[in-house]
Fold this sequence. Notes:
The protein is mainly alpha-helical.
Amino acid sequence: MTEEFVISLAKNALLTTLLVSGPILILGLIAGLAVGIFQAVTQIHEMTLTFVPKILVVALTILVFAPWMLKVLITFTAQVFAGISVVAH
């Protein structure tokens, strides 16, 4: 196992993590900002108002992006297993 392999594996793992979590985090952030602006404009400061829209947006995002996320994770896993067989020899 060489340094290049370990660095490449770590880089690919971080990139995969960012790709898979990115849509969820970005849309959750947008929902949070929208709720925050709504609360600032209407001066309604109900704590549950911040959580429910974000939970709904995150759940819908997972449902919409699940096939793509699964494809990315399967590709990464296949690359890791292929790399293990190369390193083992």
